[in-house]
Write a structure and sequence with these properties.
Blueprint lengths: L1 E2 L10 H13 L9 H20 L7 E4 L2 H16 L5 E5 L4 H12 L3 E5 L9 H7 L4 E7 L11 H7 L7 E5 L19 E5 L10 E5 L14 H4 L7 H16 L1 H19 L5 E3 L10 E6 L4 H9 L3 E2 L5 H4 L6 H5 L4 H4 L3 E4 L6 H17 L5
Parallel strand pairs: 1-11, 3-4, 3-5, 5-6, 6-7
Antiparallel strand pairs: 2-8, 7-8, 9-10, 10-12
Helix pairs in contact: 1-8, 2-8, 3-4
Length: 380
């Protein structure tokens, strides 16, 4: 099997699974309990939070545990909107955000908030000039993803941070789900970023656990009320085994990040160069300012889902852009926002690599691609 769908989810590290099993079986007390078992659990929770904070270059008190990227995104938008509604109801998100952001923004529009969508260039980057023109006196939130999940475009978070430098009343949220471990931390965790979302299963942790970074001094309305966990910001008994596992996964990912990305970039480049030799292949991902692991392309006249299943017949697994919308059969929203014609956007498929892939797999993929390309000649 060749797995090239790591942007959808990664395979948990064996060490991470061992941590999960050990904590789940041995540290089973509720961290809120007063007895010794609860105290032991509370220590693990604190140690995990401290380790994650150090790895993200922030304070321990700025880390909040969630169920994943979708919850973190929802909380960032809804929590900010409700907290700051007295000061304004205008929110800006980009046209290429993940559904967790765009669908939340749409829901907020139904609650009386005014949503503006920042356009992108034909290469898939947020247009800074047009974004600037959207900012108003009543703007309370700007939410821009760090790395686009469909084509891998690294968004200009530093430039947006400078744009918002003299607008302290505007909360700046970054969806960093696809960025962690693939892009240097300083490129998307700037001092101006107020909120940032992360998801454990995108960096080899287990599913069902994530992080919301909330800068000290920033206030958002809790979505969950109850027992007062997470400093009374997210009430529910903490998923301790998953949290400890995520801390382990983040440490392992950050430790080998530089060397890993160099390997991944070389593999991506090999595929990129090979695909360029085919007349009927369109490559939608660029090279400069793109994540090292994501490459999106299409064969003219061949729908993306057809290509996905064709590769699956050879035990090679890729996807049609975003995993969250692929089953709906919709063309890649990012490509449409870039101005790509619908018929071309419908051909798009995404390869997303990771450190556990290798050059032998790349060569096998290219061999199979040649066979599939030849088989689709009549369609083309």
């Amino acid at each position: 099997m060749i797995y090239f769908d790591n942007s959808a989810t990664t395979i948990p590290y064996p060490e991470v699974l061992r941590t999960y099993q050990e904590v789940a079986s041995k540290i089973y007390g509720n961290p809120s309990s007063l007895h010794r078992l609860g105290t032991n659990a509370s220590r693990i929770l604190k140690a995990s939070r401290q380790q994650i904070a150090e790895l993200l270059n922030c304070q321990e008190s700025e880390i909040y545990f969630t169920s994943g990227g979708t919850e973190s995104d929802n909380w960032a938008l809804k929590g900010t909107a409700f907290e700051k509604s007295a000061f304004g109801k205008h929110i800006i998100v980009s046209e290429i955000e993940h559904p967790a952001i765009k669908e939340t923004a749409k829901w907020l529009a139904g609650q009386g908030f005014d949503i503006s969508y920042a356009p992108v260039t034909d290469k898939g980057f947020v247009d800074l000039e047009k974004l600037s023109a959207l900012i108003r006196q009543d703007t309370i939130l700007v939410s821009i993803m760090a790395v686009n999940n469909e084509i891998g475009a690294i968004q200009p978070i530093k430039a947006i941070s400078q744009l918002l430098a003299d607008k302290p009343g505007v909360t700046f949220h970054v969806d960093a789900v696809q960025a962690i471990g693939k892009v240097a931390l300083e490129e998307f965790m700037t001092e101006r970023v107020d909120l940032a979302s992360f998801s454990g299963h995108k960096f080899h942790s287990v599913r069902g656990v994530g992080i919301l970074y909330k800068k000290s001094g920033k206030h958002i309305t809790p979505l969950l009320h109850g027992g007062g966990q997470e400093s009374d910001q997210r009430s529910t008994t903490e998923n301790l085994a998953a949290i400890a596992s995520m801390a382990k996964a983040l440490r392992m990912t950050r430790e080998k990040e530089e060397a890993s990305n160099q390997r991944i970039a070389k593999m991506k480049e090999l595929i990129y160069q090979a695909l360029q030799t085919y007349d009927d292949v369109q490559i939608f991902s660029g090279q400069e300012s793109f994540a090292p692991n994501i490459l999106t392309f299409g064969i003219k006249g061949v729908r993306g889902e057809v290509l996905v299943h064709a590769f699956e017949d050879y035990d090679i697994y890729i996807s049609t852009t975003s995993a969250c919308s692929s089953k709906a059969g919709k063309p890649a929203g990012t490509l449409i926002a870039m101005g790509v014609p619908v018929k071309d956007a419908q051909t798009a498929v995404r390869i997303s690599l990771d450190d556990d892939n290798n050059m032998a797999e790349i060569e096998q993929f290219l061999t199979i691609f040649k066979l599939i390309y030849q088989k689709t000649q009549k369609v083309r």
